[in-house]
């Protein structure tokens, strides 16, 4: 699996991908591809996690599911499901199925499960499979009765090895790898686990939410949109079959044909930093996430300012959680993504720079309107001093952020003992390129100290907390700066 591939599959700049070449084969094991499952000396200690009390009385087994490698028959309702698709556990959890193992992807989330799916995971602690090569012996030791890999990108040789361990459901042959629509992925997994009716209900409910968004914004129908990224190897845009692009299509947008010109099997179009004209669309969504990716977009694409999309304020910068929700494209994450994305699209699709996109203001891609400067300064202040906010979201608004990363981690840990520490602005007074912030210190939702005073400065168009200001409060929180 190549560095470019993983960095693109994940989210630009959010994970350190494994090294390799385009010719990397599936991991070799001693047994031939047509052998039986690798033997284990004893059953795995991992017990089958409890699933939600979802009725499967109407489920009929055996069921046969066709896919790109043939067809898989599942004889009975599975009890030990191993999920090898990067986003697959989200779908299973939505269906009330807690897998005994799931595939790591990115983000360093607890049990590799993002916030929107934590309630469905509950207290379960599934095994976490590596993001890179599959460990077939590890999977066999789990003694699964079903392996799901609709969004795994597995090869034919991978499938042969996996299907010798347990019935394995792979991606349909009608789509590119990682291109199965979320609706179809939900229904496939519903059939495989005996929860087809529940899957249909989930799809219908979420489809209705997309339809409501389209109905509320008829002007979006037929507008062009691209979902783009920047890695250390350059910019790119996802194809029309990619999960992220499908979400935009579900909202009525059209993905330009050029995005699909990257070659057979590719789920993104590579571009040169000197020519990103394919990104001149009505709505341009940057799957940015990490601070390094935002810096790459703003400072390492010399022709970006010439795009009409930039000049008309049509860019959206998806932060870590929105990028994660957008990229997972699951029933659980899409609820979050829609709530966060729709207001951003409203501001971008109108092509009016006087109604700036909130995320573009936050990252410094555009200036806040004069009457919104206080709001932007207050939002930056709150972001920096909220112990629950990720480092990557704080970094654009904190001077010398990289040198303070360990301090921020320690502050987050300290805040956990108080249900979070936050500095909530109650008043912001702008004075040129500086602002005085009056704020309350909250432990959880409760104010502990009120009417405190701090300052924040406008640096290169971005409201930024100085190192001295930040470290002064850290000292009061008994968290030292280096």
From TrEMBL:
Residues 21-57 are annotated as: Disordered. Residues 26-49 have a biased composition (Low complexity). It is found in: Cell envelope. GO terms for biological process: iron coordination entity transport. Residues 80-349 form the Fe/B12 periplasmic-binding domain. One of its GO terms (cellular component) is outer membrane-bounded periplasmic space. It comes from the Bacteria. Coiled coil: none annotated. Residues 1-21 form the signal peptide. It holds the Pfam family Mtb12_C. Belongs to the MTB12 family. Belongs to the bacterial solute-binding protein 8 family. This is Putative iron siderophore ABC transporter iron siderophore-binding protein.
């Amino acid at each position: 699996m190549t560095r470019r591939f993983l960095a693109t599959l994940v989210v630009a700049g959010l994970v350190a991908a494994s090294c390799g070449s385009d010719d990397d084969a599936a991991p070799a094991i001693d047994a031939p591809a047509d052998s039986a499952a690798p033997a284990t000396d004893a059953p795995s200690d991992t017990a089958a996690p409890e699933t939600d009390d979802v009725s499967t009385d109407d489920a009929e087994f055996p069921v046969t599911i066709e896919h790109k490698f043939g067809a898989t028959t599942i004889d009975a309702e599975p009890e030990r499901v191993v999920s090898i698709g990067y986003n697959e556990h989200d779908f299973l959890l939505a269906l009330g199925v807690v897998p005994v193992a799931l595939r790591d992807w990115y983000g360093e989330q607890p049990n590799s499960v993002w916030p929107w799916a934590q309630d469905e995971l509950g207290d379960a602690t599934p095994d976490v499979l590596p993001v890179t090569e599959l460990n077939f012996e590890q999977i066999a030791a789990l003694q699964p009765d079903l392996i799901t890999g609709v969004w795994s990108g597995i090869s034919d040789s991978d499938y042969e090895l996996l299907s010798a361990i347990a019935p394995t459901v792979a991606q349909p042959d009608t789509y590119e790898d990682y291109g199965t629509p979320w609706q179809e992925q939900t229904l496939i997994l519903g059939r495989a686990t005996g929860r087809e009716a529940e899957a249909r209900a989930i799809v219908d409910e979420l489809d209705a939410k997309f339809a409501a968004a389209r109905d509320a914004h008829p002007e979006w129908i037929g507008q062009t949109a691209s979902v783009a990224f920047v890695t250390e190897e350059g910019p790119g845009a996802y194809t029309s079959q990619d999960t992220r692009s499908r979400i935009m299509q579900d909202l009525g947008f059209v993905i330009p044909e050029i995005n699909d010109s990257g070659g057979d099997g590719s789920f993104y179009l590579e571009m040169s930093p000197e020519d990103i004209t394919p990104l001149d669309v009505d709505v341009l969504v940057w799957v940015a996430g990490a601070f390094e990716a935002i810096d790459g977009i703003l400072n390492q694409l010399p022709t970006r300012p010439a795009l009409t999309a930039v000049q008309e304020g049509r860019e959206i910068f998806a932060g870590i959680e929105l990028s994660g929700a957008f990229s997972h494209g699951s029933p659980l994450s899409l609820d979050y993504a829609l709530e966060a994305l729709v207001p951003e699209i409203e501001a971008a699709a109108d092509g009016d720079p006087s109604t700036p996109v909130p995320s573009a203001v936050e990252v410094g891609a555009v200036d806040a309107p004069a009457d919104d400067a206080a709001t932007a300064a207050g939002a930056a202040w709150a972001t920096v001093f909220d112990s629950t906010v990720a480092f990557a979201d704080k970094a654009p608004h904190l001077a010398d952020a990289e040198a303070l990363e360990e301090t921020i981690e320690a502050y987050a840990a300290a805040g956990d003992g108080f249900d979070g520490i936050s500095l909530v602005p109650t008043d912001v007074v702008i004075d040129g390129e500086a602002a005085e912030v009056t704020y309350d210190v909250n432990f959880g939702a409760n104010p502990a100290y009120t009417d405190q005073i701090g300052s924040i400065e406008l640096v290169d168009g971005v409201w930024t907390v100085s190192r001295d200001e930040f470290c002064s409060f850290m000292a009061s929180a008994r968290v030292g700066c280096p």
